[in-house]
Amino acid sequence: MRFFGTTWFARGGGYALRRVAVSAGSLAAAVGACFVLRFAFEGLEIAKAGSFVGVLFIVMFAVCSAIAFRKTWESFTKRPADPARDESLRSLKAIGFIGSLTAYFLRSLAEAPGEGLRRGEYETAVTQYERRRTARTRNPAARKGKRGRGPNRK
User: What letter does residue 48 receive in the DSSP assignment?
Assistant: First the structure.
């Protein structure tokens, strides 16, 4: 939602162009991140750290990316049940940044990431507001008259 402002709401103001730009940007960032990891892995090979460290490096980034992908994808559809637990996974999601970028890319193909969640929250808020507003607009004097306490009853 960061790159869309309020254009996601009415889907105007260059919404489609922004979605294309965000998709391309997140894909380019993910590809660039893969190159950075490749250079880091080559640094391990140059340092002759050993095959165990290389495998550990690959497994760590794969697991962290998978967890980051899942958590990022879930954040587009629902609010976290436990925000403190989600906050504790911040470093893990930073390590698995490729997974987060991939989730952002895939979600931006369908909608602005987080649009469905925010649109649902907005519609719920509007419904609640309308319900409260209609409850207040009734004529309280007419209601008192029906109960026997109004000005028309003696």
Answer: T
Query: CA-CA-CA-CA torsion for 21, 26, 94, 41, nearest 10 degrees?
Result: -150
What CA–CA distance (Å, rounded) separates 152 from 148? 8
- Give the pLDDT band of residue 32 (cuts 50, 70, 90): very high
Query: What tokens appear for 150 in the block?
Result: 């109004």
| Angle, in degrees to the nearest 10, between helices 97-110 and 51-75 | 30
Per the listing, tokens 């469905």 go with: 116
N- to C-terminal Cα distance for the chain?
A: 61
Residue 75's SS3 state is: helix
pLDDT tens for each residue of 65-84 = 999 999 888 887 777 777 78
Residue 85 to residue 83: CA distance in whole angstroms: 5
Contact between residue 89 and residue 70 where contact means Cβ atoms under 8 Å apart: no
pLDDT value of position 31: 92
pLDDT digits (tens, 9 = 90+) for 18-28: 778 888 888 99
